[in-house]
Amino acid sequence: MEQELATEPTIEVAAEVAAKPQPLPPLETQTLNEPMRHVPSIQWIIEKLERDVRRRIEILTAVAEPLPASDPQRALIEEALRSVCTALDRLADAARHSRPGNPPSDLASRISWSMNNAISSLRTVDANAFGRRYPFHTSERSKAECVYAALLLLLYRLEGVVPFVREVDGTVDERLLQGLVNLQEPMRQEPMA
C-alpha cells in the first residue's frame, strides 16, 4: 500500500501548476502614471517665475537702490533679498542635478543671475514626466514635489521682503498689485441703480 502525506502534492496537481505559468505584475512607467493634482505643470511654474516673481523683485529692488548704504532699512532689505536669492538657488538645484558656476557677489547682479539660473534649470525638466508619480518599484520620490516646495519657499521669502520695503515706500503695494484685475469694458460713469 502506497502512503501519501497530506502535505505532498499529487502528481496531477503538480503537473497542472507547472503547466500554467504565473503572470508577473506589470511594471509601471513614469510617463503612463497619472499626474499628481497637487503639483502644477512646469510651464505654469516657469511663467510664474518669468512674469510675476521677476516683476515683484524688480519693484522691490527699485525701492532699495536709492537708499544710502548707511541706512539701516537698506541693510534689512538687502538681507531679505539675499534670502530670496538663496531660495532661487534652491529652486534651481531642485530642478537640475548639475551645479552651476559661482554667482556674482553684487546683489543686483546676483538676483538676475539666480533668476536666470532657476528659469534655465526649470526649462531642462521634461514636461511629460514632471508632475507624475515615480513608479512604485523604484522607491524614489518625484522631483516635482521638491521643485514645487522650493517655489513655495521662494514666494514665502519674497513676501518677507515686502514689510521692509513698505516702511520705506508706503505706495509699494499699489505697484505690486497693479494689473491684478483687468476689466474688459471700463466701468460706466452713470450710476447702475
Brief write-up:
54% of the residues lie in helices and 0% in strands. The chain is mainly α and 193 residues long.
- Strand fraction equals under 5%
How many distinct beta strands?
A: 0
Q: End-to-end distance, in Å?
A: 106 Å
Tally of helical segments: 6
Order of helices and strands: HHHHHH
User: What would the principal axes of the Cα set say about the shape?
Assistant: elongated
Mean model confidence by pLDDT: 82
Summarize the topology:
Layout: H1 11-19, H2 42-64, H3 72-95, H4 107-123, H5 143-168, H6 172-177
Overview of this structure, please?
The chain has 6 helices and no strands. The chain is mainly alpha-helical. α2 packs antiparallel against α4, α2 packs parallel to α5 (143-168) and α3 (72-95) packs antiparallel against α5.
Characteristics:
single chain, 193 residues, mainly alpha, 6 helices, 54% helix
